[in-house]
Amino acid sequence: MRQPGTYSGILSGGISGKTGPHLLPLARIKKIMKKSSEDVKMISGEAPIVFSKACELFIEELTRRSWTMTIEGKRRTLHKEDVASAVVATDIFDFLVNVVSEDSANPNDEDSPAVVESKEYS
């Protein structure tokens, strides 16, 4: 018989299993998932919960690595340049290199990819 995995506790919370200590809004995640492709029509109730946890872990890891860059710069305030440095220095964040490099190249350009992506789901 299969034993519960390390993330089996993600889905437990509240009576319906859809409530709980989620730091990111599940409705927003579901909206982003639906807009990701025209082929995505139906999304189970558990999928946004798993995405929420994955996003939390991603943000925590990127923040830890960015904070390391802040400390190396002998500062106590994390800046976007620290995030960009962490992305460039870490292989697992290679998919973000274009986003941070284009955003850094055009700091006042509202049409930069990072800004456009955040506006897209508003």
**Regions with little confidence, pLDDT below 50 for 5+ residues:** 13-18, 111-122
Write down the secondary-structure element order: HHHHH
Query: What gyration radius follows from the Cα positions, in whole Å?
Result: 18 Å
Mean of pLDDT: 79
Q: What fraction of residues sit in β-strands? A: under 5%
User: How much helix is in the residues?
Assistant: 40-55%
Task: Determine the N-to-C terminus distance.
Answer: 44 Å
The count of strands amounts to 0
Helical stretch count? 5
Largest sheet: none
Shape: elongated
Which structural class best describes the helix and strand composition?
mainly alpha
Structure description:
This protein has 5 helices and no strands. Helix 2 crosses helix 3 and helix 3 runs antiparallel to helix 4. The longest helix is centred in the middle third of the chain and has 27 residues. The radius of gyration is 18 Å and the shape is elongated.
Give the SSE map.
Blueprint: H1 26-35, H2 46-72, H3 80-89, H4 97-105, H5 113-120
List key phrases describing it.
122 residues, mainly alpha, elongated, disordered C terminus
Give a short summary of the structure.
By secondary structure, the protein is mainly alpha-helical. Helices cover 52% and strands 0% of the residues.
